[in-house]
Amino acid sequence: MRIARFAAGGDPQFGIVELAEDGGDHPDTVAVLTGDPIAMPVQLTGERRELDAVRLLAPVIPRSKVVAVGRNFAAHAAELGNDVPTIPLTFFKPNTAVIGPGESIIYPPASNEVSFEGELAVVIGRICKEVPLERVADVIFGYTIANDVTARDLQKTDGQWARAKGYDTFCPLGPWITTHQSLEEVADLQIRTTLDGEERQHGSTNLMVFSIPELVVYISSFTTLLPGDVILTGTPAGVGAMLPGQEVSIEIEGIGTLTNPVAGSAPGASSTPSIKGSVR
């Protein structure tokens, strides 16, 4: 299934996305659910809306944390002049960084170089700690697409990455969560990132240094994972800068496409952009 979180003139709701490409003769629709499927048992309400008539939101707002993995593709580590880690290199992004499809990535005035990083994201479905390798599939709710937006210049100067990776709007997620894919299937998916329609990244999850099961085992060894927590699994080579006025799209085979415009002042400007009235 594809689980979406959406707004249609009221409070956010969840639903099952039904795409015409799945073999039906209907337009793309979303079948509305009674609640949050990550948190509770849900049922179909019987209501169905056309997908084009709703606004997709971030499919999950992590209840406590986003755990990201750095340099998990050898070619990406090399393109930035870094060694490949011998154990997973992890860091946190605040849940306030999360935005949904179509929402603007805001260029912070403190940075002159904001970069895109297209990634597969894992959504946790149950409370877990010290997960054994053979139980990893049991704790995963599903998968979505992430953009691990990074202020590259601040990443270099700060030493630690909280500011460079943690600005509001620096963690787009979407367009929905897929729940039907196995660990074997997501271990070999194509990832493609375009900037204004021009391809910048093209890789595969089969190039990860540490696999999804290895990441879940490692991360859960030092922190309890909660339902709705998100793990970003690393980005292929080809990362690069994006500017206000541009649009970045990340497509992952079998999941969908996450697109976000870039907004704000020109790099180096002193004025701070504002974000008003957004529903995440």
What does this 3D model show about the protein?
It is a single chain. By secondary structure, the chain is mainly beta. The chain has two domains: 55 residues, Roll (SH3 type barrels), CATH 2.30.30; 199 residues, Fumarylacetoacetase-like, C-terminal domain (Fumarylacetoacetate hydrolase, domain 2), CATH 3.90.850. The protein is 12% helix and 37% strand. It is built from six helices and 20 strands. Strands 1, 2, 3, 4, 5, 6, 7, 8, 11, 12, 14 and 17 form a twelve-stranded mixed β-sheet that branches. The two termini are 22 Å apart. About 2% of the residues have low confidence.
The coarse overall form would be globular
Q: What characterizes the major β-sheet? A: 12 strands, mixed
Gyration radius (Cα, Å) is 18 Å
* CATH top level assignment of the largest domain: Alpha Beta
Mean pLDDT: 94
- The residue ranges in which pLDDT falls below 50 over 5 or more consecutive positions are 270-276
For this structure, the quaternary state is single chain
Instruction: Please identify which CATH superfamily of the largest domain we are dealing with.
Output: Fumarylacetoacetase-like, C-terminal domain
Strand percentage: 35-45%
- Per the CATH scheme, the topology name of the largest domain is Fumarylacetoacetate hydrolase, domain 2
| Percentage of residues in helical conformation | 10-25%
Number of strands: 20
Order of helices and strands: EEEEEEHEEEEEHEEHHEHEEHEEEE
| Domain unit count | 2
